[in-house]
């Protein structure tokens, strides 16, 4: 099993960052890899159990299910249901916390998944850099924060 843990500090109040990230269907508005996204069966994007179906810029389609969402903890988790990339048993967690020194945000994004033998390093880098780090950078740009 592969584990990816990435975190960053954003120069924005935690409530502002949470307002963007808590929308499980809003990632097409800020993540550069996402072309479009919709919630299946017209369910609300904050309903635990809802499924988002989205396309990457290369046309690949993925489906992810919202497993948990807590406004009190500013956290959510989700899993991959369908993906062209062999990230098997993929479950991810996103958590925000206030950094009181400067009214900033700590953002942790982590996951665990299985891969075909021999592809662990390649797929760990894809998730760590291609999804998480590019997501951190994209939120900075989307929110017009320093370091973007």
Descriptive report:
The chain is an alpha+beta fold and 148 residues long. Helices cover 21% and strands 42% of the residues. The longest helix has 23 residues, at 120-142. The radius of gyration is 15 Å and the shape is globular. The mean pLDDT is 96.
Brief descriptors of the model:
148 residues, seven-stranded antiparallel β-sheet
Class from secondary-structure proportions: alpha+beta
What pattern of helices and strands is seen along the backbone?
Answer: EHEEEEEEH
Number of helices: 2
Task: Classify the helix fraction into a percent range.
Answer: 10-25%
What is the arithmetic mean of pLDDT?
96
Q: Between the first and last Cα atoms, what is the distance in angstroms?
A: 32 Å
Radius of gyration: 15 Å
Describe the sheet with the most strands.
Answer: 7 strands, antiparallel
Secondary structure: number of strands: 7
- Low-confidence runs of at least 5 consecutive residues: none
Biggest sheet, spatial arrangement of strands: 1-7-6-5-4-3-2
Strand content: 35-45%
Please state the overall shape, judged from the principal axes of the Cα atoms.
globular
């Amino acid at each position: 099993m592969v584990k990816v843990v990435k975190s960053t500090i954003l120069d924005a109040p935690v409530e502002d960052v949470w307002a963007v990230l808590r929308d499980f269907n809003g990632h097409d508005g800020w993540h550069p890899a996402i072309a479009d996204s919709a919630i299946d069966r017209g369910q609300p994007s904050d309903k635990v159990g809802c499924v988002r179906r989205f396309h990457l810029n290369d046309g690949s389609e993925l489906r992810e299910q919202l497993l948990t969402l807590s406004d009190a903890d500013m956290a959510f988790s989700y899993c991959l249901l369908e993906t062209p990339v062999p990230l098997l048993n993929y479950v991810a967690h996103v958590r925000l916390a206030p950094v009181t020194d400067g009214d900033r945000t700590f953002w942790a994004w982590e996951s665990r998944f299985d891969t075909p033998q021999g592809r662990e390093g390649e797929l760990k880098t894809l998730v760590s850099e291609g999804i998480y780090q590019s997501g951190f950078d994209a939120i900075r740009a989307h929110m017009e924060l320093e370091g973007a």
